[in-house]
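Support reply, case 0932

Customer input (verbatim):
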Amino acid sequence: MEFKTDDLDQWLDIFSKMKNHFLISLCYRDFSIVTIRILKKFFFNPELQSRVISECTDRFISMLELLYVPDNDQECKDNVREFLEVLHDGAVDEGIDIEDEE
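Our regenerated output:
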C-alpha cells in the first residue's frame, strides 16, 4: 500500500499519535517485524520521510536504550539492527525478510 498524496497529512497525524507504540513494539518479538513493515512505509515515503524522522528521533533513541539491555530478546535486537542497516543503506527491499505481504 502506498500513501496517497492527498492523505499524507492524515498519515503523519496517525504516525504522530502512534509513534510511541510503534517504537516500543520493536522491543517485542511478536511485534517487531510487523512494526518494521509499518515503519518502512513512513521512513521510505519521500514526502513523509524528513517529517517522520524528525518526529521520532528522541523516541527512537529511547527505544534503542530499552532494546539493548542484556535481558531483552536477541531476535528483536537483530531485527532492529537489520532495519537500521536498511535505513542507512536506503534500500527498502534488502535486509531481513520485512517485505510487505500482499
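We compared this against your earlier run and they match. Two observations from our side: The two ends are 9 Å apart (CA to CA). Residues 5-89 form one domain. Please reopen the case if you see a mismatch on your end.
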